[in-house]
């Protein structure tokens, strides 16, 4: 939390502060793609050494996950949301005019804002990709809150309730907040953009 995730699209740097992430703790985690030791070409990124990218898709959306353990131990962190810093005009264009929190308040929205339309960088090492997570600088964070993960199957209440989703409390770019609250924040951002 508080680190900058960036993507260099070849023309400019698109970036934002990480404000939401979820942990997936491997073969014992019923919500993990590697639960029970499942391993396939589709989830191979999780089995790579820490720092390897696991980019996967669901429907037309792409998701950014980083392996975080030794090779063969399939644990990862899904970056769910960023608070945009640079390349915002390009992100708005990539998101078909969406502004404010709707720009990057979810993992699919974030990747769409970056202009990611394929799994091209799946399995790449973070340092060998156009992505970067700045571990040398951190934005000051008042409070990090742990919550249950989003969209986890309730058939296993133990894993559905585990607090493995981490958010920057109060940040408007956190996903899964009430639509009326997103509308208020988005309207405020639109007013600010008109003034600037």
From TrEMBL:
Keyword set for this entry?
Answer: DNA damage, DNA repair, Hydrolase
InterPro entries assigned: Formyl_transferase-like_C_sf, MPG, MPG_sf
The enzyme's first-digit EC class, named in words, is hydrolase
> Which top-level group of life is the source organism from?
Bacteria
Output the Gene Ontology terms for molecular function: alkylbase DNA N-glycosylase activity; DNA binding
E.C. code:
3.2.2.-
Pfam families referenced in this protein's UniProt entry, alphabetically: Pur_DNA_glyco
Q: Which GO terms describe its biological process?
A: base-excision repair
Q: Which PANTHER family match?
A: DNA-3-METHYLADENINE GLYCOSYLASE
Q: HAMAP family this protein is in?
A: 3MGH
Similarity field: Belongs to the DNA glycosylase MPG family.
Q: What is this protein called?
A: Putative 3-methyladenine DNA glycosylase
Q: Name the species this protein comes from.
A: Lactobacillus sp. JCM 1131
């Amino acid at each position: 939390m508080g680190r900058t995730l960036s993507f260099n699209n070849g023309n400019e740097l698109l970036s934002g502060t990480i404000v939401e992430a979820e942990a997936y703790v491997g073969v014992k985690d019923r919500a993990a793609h590697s639960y029970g030791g499942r391993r396939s070409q589709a989830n191979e990124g999780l089995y790579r050494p820490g720092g390897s990218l696991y980019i996967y898709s669901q429907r037309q959306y792409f998701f950014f996950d980083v392996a975080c353990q030794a090779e063969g131990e399939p644990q990862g962190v899904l970056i769910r949301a960023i608070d945009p810093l640079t390349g915002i005009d390009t992100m708005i264009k990539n998101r078909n005019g969406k502004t404010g929190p709707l720009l990057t308040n979810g993992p699919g929205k974030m990747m769409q804002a970056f202009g990611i339309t394929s799994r091209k960088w799946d399995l790449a090492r973070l340092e060998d990709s156009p992505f970067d997570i700045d571990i040398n600088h951190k934005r000051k964070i008042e409070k990090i809150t742990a919550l249950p993960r989003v969209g986890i199957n309730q058939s296993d209440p133990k894993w559905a309730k585990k607090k493995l989703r981490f958010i920057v409390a109060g940040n408007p770019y956190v996903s899964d907040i009430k639509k009326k609250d997103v509308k208020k924040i988005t309207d405020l951002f639109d007013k600010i953009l008109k003034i600037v």
